[in-house]
Amino acid sequence: MSRTIVFFAVLVLASPTLVAGQLATELSSQVRNRYVRIAAPAYVLRDVTLVDGTGAEPRRGVSVVVEDGRITQVGTNVDIPQDADVLTYSGHTLIPGLVGLHDHLFYTAAGGRLAQMGFTGPRLYLGAGVTTIRTTGSVQPYAEINLKADIEAGRTPGPRVHITAPYIDGPGGLEGNVQLTSPEQARRFVSYWGEEGATWIKAYTAVGRAEMSAVIDEAHKRGMKVTGHICSISFTEAVEMGFDNVEHGLLANTDYNPDKQPDECPPRNGAIIENLDIRGPEVEATFRKMIDAGVGMTSTLAVYELFVPNRPTKDARSLEAMAPEVREAYLASKELIDTNPTPGISQRMFGNSMAYELRFVEMGGLLANGVDPTGNGGALPGYGDQRGVELLMEAEFSFPQAIQIAALNGAKILEVDDDLGSIEVGKIADMVLLRGELTNDPSIIRNTVIVFKDGVGYDSRALLDEVKGRVGIN
Q1: 75 CB contacts (<8 Å, ≥6 apart)?
Q2: Which of 51, 140, 280, 362 shows a CA-CA span of 20 to 30 A to 400?
Q3: Which of 101, 66, 104, 29 is nearest to 454 (CA)?
Q4: Same domain, yes or no, for 433 and 407?
């Protein structure tokens, strides 16, 4: 099913690296003047409601002290540093910067459109509160390597970028992917992209086990990691082979299909997903293997929701951001989906996918979040990451749990959680200020006011306004 519905999710050391302490003075004058709202080396955010990213309950009346890009105090009674700016934000909520684990820098949309998002992508991610991304599959890798360098040099605004190499696939896979036919070719591929700066490899749905084993072995020798939108390899097989992460949750897992054959993507997976007992022994066996091996899973509910009839997938902000012809094609595709009597993803399949992710976490699994801005184009960078938080809450996670999944858990999978993912003393000041007191309404996640990256406060509106009418072009 995952191969026929739509193409989802279609220089440096080879280990996680950070650009810590990129203060406002290290940004170009154009970036500072157009986007930066708070540039003081020391400041206090006073009287906020804090959701710190650890899963802890919200705390009200909290102050957060930032000095030289790091968090130095968090509490209701803090010592204000000399010469620090004191900024009171009563009636606002502060969360950590989101860490997007499936956040491409390209975009696909209805009608076959594919566009690299060198301009709109970084602005949408950062403006919506996503301060770190993993690209999780590339179609123009050098465009992304160059963009990463521009962001790190302060020439353009954007999130931290963890580079994933171009997709690897097998014979009969997508024509734009590298179709591996031997372990030797697989090793050459990993070696080349490791030298070019990729820290992750992304497998796609038709890759074979022999080639995949060589990929994993070579990647791990180089300190690189491996994830996948897989089908010919099930989640259980992936764990046994040594994958570090798997993408998309239930809708991509073929563990439960009795027709599954080695190295083949089976047909007719939809009915199995629709009727799967989420609390049954088969699911428990998959999750136990993943958890015991430390293999995390990435939720991408925001992109799958687009293919479920009559879901709320016509976000006004996203429609306004699309180029006119992209918007028109997207709305036409949604009309077809909403009136289709036999949809590719039914309401029950989608509900089971949500329950699958909840069960994974209940059992102790490490779940992260990402938008995957592909498919028919309705899940945009940043906005889709926010929608993912809302959908996690629909899946019965609390707001603090959803933020933990969308921030700290992603940082853990990237192995950068010593510095990022939560608002704690000693960490880099990546934070998002949201307008409004925390309530049970998950839409608060959309009310971004200021996004802090390395302690620099970026004006969310200034970033988001620039992309209007441009998504699908650049």
Answers
A1: 62, 63
A2: 280
A3: 66
A4: no
Q: Is residue 166 part of a domain?
A: yes
Alpha-carbon separation of residue 453 from 20, 147, 433 (angstroms): 9, 17, 12
Structure tokens at 49: 């409601």
Residues 443 and 336 in one domain: no
Question: What is the spatial order of strands in the sheet that 130-134 belongs to?
Answer: 98-100, 130-134, 160-162
pLDDT in tens, 315-361: 999 999 999 999 999 999 999 999 999 998 999 999 999 999 999 99
Both tokens of residue 168? 């690897």
Residue 10: inside a domain? no
> What value does the mean pLDDT of the chain take?
94
Intra-chain end-to-end CA distance of the chain, in Å: 30
Token digits of residue 418: 């010593």
Q: Which domain holds residue 460?
A: 24-96+423-465
pLDDT digits (tens, 9 = 90+) for 128-146: 999 999 999 999 999 999 9
**Torsion angle in degrees (nearest 10) through CA of 418, 32, 103, 112:** -170
Non-local (6+) Cβ contacts of 157 within 8 A are 31, 35, 122, 123, 126, 151, 458, 463
Q: What is the pLDDT of residue 21?
A: 60
pLDDT at 308: 97
3-class SS letters over 263-306: CCCCCCCHHHHHHCCCCCHHHHHHHHHHHHHCCEEEECHHHHHH
| Claim to verify: residue 276 and residue 225 sit in the same structural domain | yes
Number of domain units in the chain: 2
Note whether residue 7 is domain-resident.
no
Which band of pLDDT confidence, cut at 50, 70 and 90, is reported for residue 452? very high
